[in-house]
Amino acid sequence: MTARLSPERETEIRNRAEAATPGPWVEYADYGKDFYAYTGGPYLRGVGTLNLGDGEDADADREFITHAAEDVPALLAELAAARAERVEARKRVDELEKVAVEARAALGSLCYDLEDPGSNALGALYLLSQATTWTATKPDDALRVLAKRDATVREAALREAEGVASELFDAADERGDRAGAEVAEQIADRMARIADGTEAGGQA
Q: Bridge partners of 38?
C-alpha cells in the first residue's frame, strides 16, 4: 500500500511543479525533431528534446511527461479544495453530533420518567444512540432506558417460551411420553428461572 502523502513530500512536489516550465508542452519542429516547448506565453519557452522512441509505451510516456506541467498543479489545487471541503464537513458533522447528543439526552430523560414511552420514542432514542456511539458524551438516561426496554422484551419472550414449553409438557403427559414431558418441564422451568432473573436485573 502506498504511504499517505506527507506535508514534506507535498511541498517537494509543489516546489518542483512551480519551478518547472509551465504547460502544456507541445512539439516545436522549428528547433528540431522531438523538441518540445511552451508556446502559450508572450515568448517561447523551450523544454528540450524528448526522444522517447517509438511504440505504445513511448507514446504513453510522452503524453504523461508533456502534460505533467498542467496535471500536477491541477491535482494539487484539487487536493487543497478537497481539504477545505473536508474541514467544513467536519465542522458540520460536529454541529450535528452536538445536536444529536443533546436530543439523545433530552429524549432519554423524558423516556426514563415515563412508564411506557411508546415504540416511536424508543425507536428514535435507539437511532440517536447509534448515531452518537463514538461521540464523547456525558452519561445520560438513554442507555438505561434502552437496557430497560431490552429487559422487558427479553422477559416477554422468555415468558412466551415458558408457556410453549408448558403446553408441550401437557401434550407429552397426555400421550404418556414421560421422556418428552420431562424435557418440556425442564425447558419451562429454565425459561421461568431466566425470566425471574431478568425481572431482578440478573442475566441468563
A: 45
